[in-house]
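Researcher: Here's a chain I'd like modeled. Treat it as a single chain, no partners, no ligands.
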Amino acid sequence: MLFLGIGSGQPQYAQAAPASILKQGSANGDVWDVQFRLKLLGYYELKLDGMYGPGTATAVQNFQSDYGLSADGVTGPATTQALQTFSLNRSELDILAKVIYSEARGESYEGQVAVGAVVMNRIESGSFGDDIEDVVFQRGAFTAVSDGQYNLTPDETAYQAAEDAVRGWDPTGDALYYFNPKTATSAWIWSRPQTVQIGNHIFAQ
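Model: Modeled as a single isolated chain. Structure tokens:
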């Protein structure tokens, strides 16, 4: 159960930290990371090879166009920041799947996606940390992290739910919090504007 947090906001691409510029001809681990993130979002369908070829450039360009960035096919700081905000790399996807499995493995598939969506909403809000590790490991944020259930091995369904959450399925109505009404005792969490109840979780903003 997630029960702590601090407001919301919008990511500012213009304030992205300096990053290496990747373009056609680049070949390194950063390219592989970009390809994985684009593949997870459904923009890149080729083999992950760490080579920034025409296929990668086209995928980047399509992503940029959809996310309001200059569609030049080059991965500069603003595009890197957008990818890091709206997608995950391999190890980060593992973190999301572990949160979903440990927090919602008894819920419906929609309920599992919903938990993942809350995590993604927190990353995108920019008010809970810079990345998924900041969000998930914020002290007291997730019961499953606090009590050790986070260390359980997620199943295939949890990974599928994680991928759907990253791709934008949000059954929660942009919720930033969720809680079990049968066990929640915090007056603060009950005061949050509720969006929907899915299974054993109420989602709230």
